[in-house]
UniProtKB/TrEMBL annotation:
Enzyme Commission number(s) of this protein: 1.-.-.-
SMART domains the UniProt entry points to: PKS_ER (SM00829)
Organismal lineage: Bacteria, Bacillati, Actinomycetota, Actinomycetes, Kitasatosporales
Keyword Cytoplasm: yes
UniProt keyword Transmembrane present: no
Alphabetically ordered keywords of this record: Cytoplasm, NADP, Oxidoreductase, RNA-binding
Subunit text: Homotetramer.
Residue ranges of every copy of the Enoyl reductase (ER) domain listed in the record: 10-295
A Pfam family the protein falls into: ADH_zinc_N_2
Family annotation (SUPFAM superfamilies): GroES-like, NAD(P)-binding Rossmann-fold domains
Name of protein: NADP-dependent oxidoreductase
Protein source organism: Streptomyces hintoniae
Highest taxon, organism lineage: Bacteria
Length: 297
């Protein structure tokens, strides 16, 4: 099978797409013939070695955690799924023709593989940070970097829960954010005052890692009301860095429910062939994403 991997930490040029041995499902796992794989910022952060001290890898290592595909191998002890089922979920080394998933759910009706691949870790992260920041119905949440995959999910889930959301993004993404139900404003010089004009902020999320932690604390008045998934310096300001996943099966079940009820839709901004994983990483790292980026297998 073809698989993307890297033998050393570094830039996108360290990625190689080459033949590799097929993985097999162990106990509690399923193997899928991957049809699409999600491209997440954590993928290139791992490739760059940003987590090498906290989560060291045995190199060479595969890339990717999200996938959608067709089950073709069911591990011992797995029930409720069989070969031929269309599923989406999380696993290891999903930038490949075959991948083992450790958490999965059936794909909602009407969802394409490309769309489904963009949901798993994005929705899990969105649900987790909303829970951790403690925002409730009737309150206002500020989301810095709101137009990407996690931001798109946060805006829609928050709206479904009766939370008002202020979202910052590029000038080109203002209408997109408003379409997801956010009070939108641009980042850049003067953004704090623009946010204040939109309303009082009860809690805030840093999804882009653009060096705004100090301002988010000032806007909320309490570092405990701020969560970051992208700025490793957040603890220096008393802000929690959220990097440990919660229950992925629960998140997938909630994602499937939201999608089925028409309350969640994350568009695919661009799909790339497997051999262009490096280009996908370059574009993901550049930011300004509207929705999700995926690889087509």
């Amino acid at each position: 099978m073809r698989k993307v991997s890297f033998a050393e930490y570094g830039g996108p040029d360290v990625l190689r797409c080459a033949d590799a041995e097929e993985p097999h499902a162990g106990p509690g796992q399923v193997r899928v013939a991957v049809r699409a794989a999600g491209v997440n910022p954590v993928d290139w952060r791992i490739r760059e070695g940003q987590f090498r001290t906290t989560r060291p890898l045995a190199l060479p290592a595969g890339v990717g955690i999200d996938a959608a595909g067709v089950v073709d191998e069911v591990g011992e002890g797995v029930e409720g799924v069989e070969a031929g089922d269309r599923v989406f979920g999380e696993g290891l080394s999903t930038y490949a023709e075959f991948a083992v998933l450790t958490a999965w759910a059936r794909m909602p009706e009407g969802l394409t593989f490309e769309e489904a691949a963009g949901y798993p870790s994005v929705v899990e992260t969105a649900l987790r940070v909303l829970r951790e920041v403690g925002v409730r119905a009737g309150q206002t949440l500020l989301v810095s970097g709101a137009s990407g995959g996690v931001g798109s999910a946060v805006l829609q889930i928050a709206r479904d829960r009766g939370i008002t959301v202020i979202g910052t993004g590029s000038a080109a993404n203002q209408e997109y954010l408003r379409g997801l139900g956010a009070l939108a404003t641009t980042y850049g010089e003067g953004w704090v005052e623009r946010v204040r004009r939109l309303g009082e902020v009860d809690a805030a999320l840093d999804l882009a890692g653009s060096g705004v932690i100090r301002e988010l604390v000032a806007l909320t008045g309490d570092p405990r009301r701020v969560i970051s998934i992208a700025d490793l310096t957040a603890p220096e300001f008393g802000v929690r860095f959220s990097g440990t996943a919660g229950s992925v099966p629960d998140a997938l079940a909630e994602a499937a429910d939201l999608i089925a009820r028409g309350r969640l839709h994350i568009p695919v901004e661009k799909a790339y062939p497997l051999a262009e994983a490096a280009a996908a990483h370059i574009d993901s790292r550049a930011g300004h994403t509207r929705g999700r980026r995926v690889l087509i297998i």
